[in-house]
Amino acid sequence: MAAGATNKMEAQATLAKRLGWTFLILCCYRIGVHVPIPGVDAAALASFFETMQGTLFSLFDMFSGGGLSNVSVFALGVMPYISASIIMQLLQVISPDIKRMAREEGQAGRRKITQYTRYLTVAITLVQGLGVAIGLENMTSPTGTPVVLHPGWEFRLVTMITFTAGSVLVMWLGEQITERGIGNGISLIIFCGIVVGIPRGIIQSYALIEAGDMSIFMAILLLVFMAAVTVFIVFVERAQRRIPISYAKRQVGRKMFGGQNSHLPLRLNTAGVIPPIFASSLLLFPATVGQFSGNEYVRQLADLFSPNGILYNILYVGLMFFFCYFYTAIIFDPKDMAENLKKAAGFIPGISPGKKTEEYIDTVLSRLTFSGAIYISLVCLMPMLLISKFNVPFYFGGTSLLILVGVAMDFMNEVESHMISSQYQGLMQKARKSGKA
Fold first, then answer.
1. In contact, 185 and 171? CB cutoff 8 Å
2. In this structure, how many other beta carbons lie within 10 angstroms of the beta carbon of residue 121?
3. Contacts of 136 by beta carbon, 8 Å cutoff, 6+ apart
4. Which of 415, 379, 376 is nearest to 397 (CA)?
5. What is the SS3 assignment for 31?
6. Is 348 in a helix, a strand, or coil?
7. Spatial contact of 147 and 41, defined as CB atoms under 8 Å apart
8. CA dihedral in degrees (144, 150, 153, 157; nearest 10)?
């Protein structure tokens, strides 16, 4: 009893340390969001963004945690890193060398890919920083006040360097959370940015009610609808297809092994919140640069990518379907699963081991992925309906709810797994000491 209590206390202390580290890093991130880049008129910038509510800027600002509206050192947030990660994952499919590095070289290969992702993040941030700097020079407040005090290449270079340093720091903070804290650092940073914007969204909704643009009945109806969607997301995220697995009996010496029945759990939404995050990162920045551009034709092209526009949502759904299948194929290989089952003398009742098992698992997984992609698309299309019809802030849209619920559930699973793992390791250490004694 005493040993068990000690193990539990040690596990709780370790968990508290990791949670404290995670909270500290997220606080550092939120401080950086409010540090503006030099050379920008804050008042003129605030006036400009007041006229851009409910547009693409609001959606991008949500993912950056308010960094874009402040034009802070963290204005680009984690989007360059996500774009670099997408490119590297695509290269793993296209390039045999990178694929071999990821799958055959083990930890050393993964470290190389991580390093390449960092270099690519820097390159993407430099290009994006130049585009945003040029766009800022063309921006003026509604009264005609220029946003940039002293435009020119000096401002552009400073902005590029500042944005690059900020994005690299955000990337490093996310990696520190993953290594020393709890959960996926990049996902938690996006989660944090959405959560801190919810009070602002509530204030905006209250202003709409006061102005008569939204009735109280409609506001209550939307709250009930969002609660129902949240319950639906939790239900689907926990949904599984359990493939029955049987293990053949085999005798080793005088002992008999196998003969048990188990199951292979396959989630309905195997890709999690990755598809909407990846899809948004690919669509948001090109459209945002177009909005910043002073060229009228480029701006008209960017208007086609408005979040409540048809083209944007068609591309959004298409990209989410693509990333659902793509990410599922990366993290789950039916061939490896079939081979592992065969080595462990396991089989699916009614299905021959080997190639037939691989085909069966691949078929089931493809159907589940298709259903999961439809589910994600339906949930994430809510912003178009809510914003176009009721002028609701992006923070209450389906994409936000999906990311919030998905990341929160993954975070709680990480906490639970850490507690179980810590207690198991403590028991193993006690057993070793007892064996030596």
1. no
2. 26
3. 40, 71, 147, 148, 159, 292
4. 379
5. helix
6. coil
7. yes
8. -100
**Which is it for the CA torsion 347, 351, 354, 360, positive or negative?**
negative
* C-beta separation of 382 from 398 below 8 A: yes
Sign of CA dihedral 105, 115, 30, 43: negative
141-145: long-range contacts, CB 8 A cutoff, minimum separation 24: 141/41, 141/43, 141/44, 141/45, 141/47, 141/48, 142/47, 142/48, 142/50, 142/51, 143/44, 143/47, 145/41, 145/43, 145/44, 145/47
pLDDT digits (tens, 9 = 90+) for 47-57: 766 666 555 56
Looking from the CA of 105 toward its CB, the CA atoms found within 13 Å total 13
DSSP string for 176-220: HHHHHSSS-HHHHHHHHHHHHHHHHHHHHHHHHHHHTSS-HHHHH
Tell me, rounded to whole angstroms, the distance of Cα 174 from its chain centroid: 12
H helices within 293-354, ranges in order? 296-303, 310-331, 334-343
Over the stretch 294-344, which tens digit does the pLDDT of each residue have? Answer: 566 666 666 666 666 677 778 888 888 988 888 888 778 788 888 888 887
CA–CA separation, 51 and 185 (whole Å)? 33
Residue 260 DSSP label:
-
Q: pTM of the entire structure?
A: 0.76
Question: What are the angstrom distances between the C-alpha of 112 and each of 91, 101, 108?
Answer: 14, 8, 6
